[in-house]
Amino acid sequence: MSKTKMPASLPDPIINENAKIVLARRYQKKDAEGIVYETVKELFWRVASAIAAEEAKYDGSSCKPATLARDFYDLMTSYSFLPNSPTLMNAGTGLGQLAACFVLPVADSIEDIFDAVKHAAMIHKSGGGTGFSFSRLRAKDSVVGSTGGVASGPLSFLRIFNCATEQIKQGGTRRGANMGILRVDHPDIMEFIKAKERDGELNNFNLSIGLTEAFMRAVEKNEEFDLMAPNSGQVVEKLNAREVFNLLVQKAWESGDPGIVFLDRINRDNPTPALGEIESTNPCGEQPLLPYEACNLGSINLGKCYAKGKNGHDSEVNWDELRRIIHLSVRFLDNVIDASVYPLSEITEMVGKNRKIGLGVMGWADLLFQLDIAYNSQTAVDLAERVMKFMRDEARSASKQLAAERGPFPAYAESVFGKANLGPYRNATTTTIAPTGTLSIIGGCSSGVEPLFALSFVRNVMDNDKLVESNPFFETALKQADAYSPKLMEEIAKVGTIRKMEHLPHDLRRVYVTAMDIEPIWHLKMQAAFQKYTDNAVSKTVNLPGSATREDIWDIYWKAYEYGCKGVTVYRDGSKTSQVLCTGDGD
Ligand code: ADP
Prior knowledge:
Layout: H1 17-27, H2 40-53, H3 65-77, E1 81-83, H4 85-90, E2 101-104, H5 110-125, E3 129-133, H6 153-167, E4 178-183, H7 189-193, E5 205-211, H8 213-220, E6 224-228, E7 235-240, H9 241-255, E8 259-262, H10 263-268, E9 280-281, E10 288-289, E11 294-301, E12 306-307, E13 316-317, H11 319-339, H12 345-354, E14 357-362, H13 364-370, H14 378-406, H15 416-419, H16 439-443, E15 456-461, E16 465-470, H17 472-480, H18 486-495, H19 506-511, H20 520-531, E17 541-544, H21 550-562, E18 567-572
Parallel strand pairs: 2-3, 3-4, 4-5, 5-8, 11-14, 17-18
Antiparallel strand pairs: 1-11, 2-11, 6-7, 8-18, 9-10, 12-13, 15-16
Helix pairs in contact: 2-3, 5-6, 9-21, 11-14, 14-20
C-alpha cells in the first residue's frame, strides 16, 4: 500500500513534557544502539499515512488517502483522538501488529495448553495483551486418561503462563498483561479465588471470576449451587453460594483481586452467538472477545469537545465537534483492522469475520471540570448517559456508512443485527471504554472515565529534583478565583485533594473532586451510565477508602450486578496489591 509522503508544510505537533519522555522511551523508532531516530512529528505521520493508505483498496471510498492522512495527523496531534498503543508503536513499520486486545482459547490437553502459551508469547512480543478462560481445564486431581495419573488443574498451568510472560519483555516495548478467568462453577474455584493472596503471586495476571445468573440467584436465596467437572459436565460438589461470594469479597477487600465479570450478561450482548460463546475479556476487562478474536481500540479526548457559552455561561458539550471526531475515528479504526498483521492465522480469520472496533473516551473528568459539574452528582451521571448514547449512535452511523462503501462485516448475516434486519454495519461492535493508561499521558488529559487521582502531586525527576505538577483546569480555576500560589500547590500536592481546605471557595471544592473524595456509589453509577450505551465494556475502578468494610464491597458487587455492569473492579486504599500495570510505560 503506497503511503503519502510527508508534506513540507506539515505543522510540528505540540508535545507535553511527560509525553516527550513516554514517546521517546516506548514509541519513537530506535536504531540498534537504542538511539531514537524518529521525531514525534514523523511518528504521527507514520501512523496517519499508513492507516490512510488502506483507503486505496476500496473502490467505493469517499476519501482520498492523501487528504485522509492529513486529517488523521491533525486528529492525533490535536490530541482529540488517539489509537491504542500498539497502533502508535507499530503502524507503518515492519511489525504491523496494531491491536491491544486478544483472547485465546485454552483447551483441555497438554498440546492445546502449550499452544496457548506459545501464542500468548507471540502476542506479547508485539505489544498486545491476552485474556484466557481456564474453565475448560479439568479440575486438580482428576484422572488423566492417557497416563492414569492425576491432573494438576487450571492454577498450576496459569503459573506457567505467568512465568512465560515474565520472560518476554515485549521486544523492548512493554511487558505482557493477562486476564485469567475461571467460571464460578469450576471445581477449583475456591483455590482460584485465593490464588493471589500472597503478594507478588501471579504478578502478570489480573484474575476475574466468571459469575453466572444461576450463581447470583443462589446467592440471593442463600442456596447451594453446583460445581461441575468441565470435561464430563457432571456435578461433583455443591457449595453454599454465599460462602463463595463471601470469600470473593474477603479477597477483594484484602488485595483488590480477583475482580468479577458477569458472563451471562456479556453473552447476552454477544453480537455473533453463532460464532461461539464469549468466555473471557482482555487484561483490563473492557473488551470481551470470542476465542482467537482481537480488537483495536481508540479513545476520543472529551476534554477537547467543550463549547464555551456566550458571556461565559451555558457552556456545553461541543456536539458538532464530537460528531466530526467520532466519524473520522471510526474510519481510522476500521482501516487499522486492514493494516494490522496478526500473529496467527486463526486470529486473522476471526477478526476478518467480525471486524470489531472499540471507540471510547478519555478526558471525561477534564470535560466535567470545564462544565463546572461535580463528578459525584446526578448531573454528571445524566450527562455521561447523554454523551455515551451520542457516541454509540454516531459510531454506529459511521459504521453504517462504511458498510455502504465497503460492505458489512462478513458475519453480519448471522449476527443479531442481521437477524433483526438492523444495519448493515461494518463492525460487529463499535464502542469500548479503555483505561487509556498511556494514551492519557500522551494526550495530557484525565484517563478514561475516571476522576483524577490527585489535583496536584510531586513528580520526582532526574537528579532528585522534585516538580509540583497539577491539573491545568484546576490551576486555571484557582487563578480565576484569585486563590493560586505556589505554596498552596505544594500543600495540595501533599494530600492530593482540597476537600478539607475550607478556606478555598465552596464551588471549587464541589467541582474539583478526586477519586478518593468520591463516594463509591458514584463511581459505580458512572460506570453503569457509560455501560448502558457501550457495546463492549467499561474500564473503571471503584476506589474505596482504607476504612471500607467487607460489607461495603459486598454492596458494591451486588449493585454492580443490579445496575447492569458487565464486571467490577474495586481498590481499597492501602490494600496489598494493585492491578497488573496497564499504565505509564508498562513495566
Ligand atoms: P494504552 O493507553 O497504552 O493504549 P490502555 O491502558 O487503554 O492502553 O489499555 C488497553 C488495553 O491494552 C488493555 O486492556 C490491554 O488489553 C492492553 N494493554 C495495556 N497495557 C498493556 C501491557 N503493559 N502489556 C500488554 N497489553 C497491555
